[in-house]
TrEMBL record:
Species this protein is from: Planosporangium thailandense
Ranges for domain BioF2-like acetyltransferase: 114-243
Family to which the UniProt record says this protein belongs: Belongs to the FemABX family.
Superkingdom of origin: Bacteria
Protein name as catalogued: GNAT family N-acetyltransferase
The keyword Hydrolase is assigned to this record: no
Gene3D superfamilies attached to this UniProt entry: 3.40.630.30
Keywords: Acyltransferase, Cell shape, Cell wall biogenesis/degradation, Peptidoglycan synthesis, Transferase
PANTHER family per the UniProt record, alphabetical: LIPID II:GLYCINE GLYCYLTRANSFERASE
Length: 308
């Protein structure tokens, strides 16, 4: 999907035994910055460690780096922690996961009493209604309008609309996730995109209309999304990646009874790795906030693929 949307060259690196059985593998996208090829596993993905057959010997670092050098790639970012002498430590993030292997009442009881449970009830009293999107327009129109509004407020570009069309067709429509929408008086107030596979549900994107935040639609949205994940058999609700500097988001996720952990990316390169390569510069953030609401979308159409 990423290759189709952003015109990346995508492939898998594998280690096979003499019988042709795959012992280890890693999906990779080749992206270009200033004309030089870089490998990323995977762009716009929170984590993507190598998959290794149980019992396989050794760390994958040596074969990954040897392939990088053989193909003339200047930088290879693996979005997971690797070990080895040639590994450089990349950016560090936080992750928050909520265990769902218990009764719904026990999950609810673990939420912060004042900052979460009270706000869920406040949203219910205000008349907030949560529904699961059933058609593509729920993602590409309802969610996307809220997403543009939120990204304008934050001062960051918006993914191209074609990305969300592909997300619906490749993931949500086949049942690998959902767009869940909170409405107040029939008007969309908040929405989120959640991906689910196996026993894990991952919160991927969230958006809201700041004019309705007083009714706490986000709290009811997350609680109903957790209930949706439990109903489909998920045992973990992953709140996604958080920047270390984003203390407000970290505190919000911590109030949901989550387990916090720190993780970092790994870089294989011939030169020292630089941190924060995908961050939006402060002057551009300020310009986006001050500009018209269509600016984040325009910049996303032109530049988003180059932030991989």
């Amino acid at each position: 999907m990423l290759a189709e949307c952003y015109r990346f060259r995508a492939f898998c690196l594998t280690v096979d035994d003499h019988a042709g059985r795959i012992l280890a593998g890693l999906p990779v996208a080749e992206v270009h910055r200033r004309g030089r090829p870089r490998w990323v596993s995977l762009p716009f993905t929170d984590e993507c460690p190598p998959l290794i057959t149980p019992g396989a010997d050794g760390e994958p670092t040596e074969w990954l780096d040897s392939l990088r050098r053989a193909f003339g790639v200047c930088r290879f970012e693996v979005r997971a922690a690797l070990r080895g002498e040639r590994v450089q430590r990349g950016d560090t993030y936080l992750n928050h996961r909520l265990p769902l292997d218990r009764a719904e009442d026990d999950v609810f009881a673990a939420l912060h009493p004042n900052q979460v449970r009270r706000n869920i009830r406040r949203a219910q009293r205000a008349g907030v209604v949560v529904r699961v999107g059933s058609v593509e327009a729920d993602l590409t129109e309802v969610f996307y309008r809220l997403h543009m509004r939120t990204r304008h407020r934050l001062g960051v570009p918006v993914q191209p609309l074609r990305y969300f069309r592909l997300l619906w067709r490749r993931f949500l429509e086949p049942g690998l996730g959902a767009v869940i929408i909170a409405e107040l008086g029939g008007v969309p107030a908040a929405a989120g995109v959640f991906l689910a596979f196996g026993e894990t549900c991952v919160y991927k994107y969230g958006a809201s209309d700041e004019r309705h935040l007083g009714a706490r639609p986000n709290h009811l949205l997350f609680w109903e999304s957790i209930r949706w994940a439990m109903a489909r058999g998920c045992r973990t609700f992953d709140f996604g990646r958080t920047d270390l500097a984003d203390t407000g988001l970290r505190e919000f996720k911590s109030r949901w009874g989550t387990v916090e952990r720190e993780f970092n990316y790994s870089v294989l390169a011939d030169v020292p790795a630089r941190a924060g390569m995908g961050a939006v510069p402060a002057p551009l953030r300020s310009a986006i906030r001050r500009g018209p609401i269509f600016v984040p979308r325009l910049l996303g159409e032109l530049l988003y693929r180059h932030t991989a």
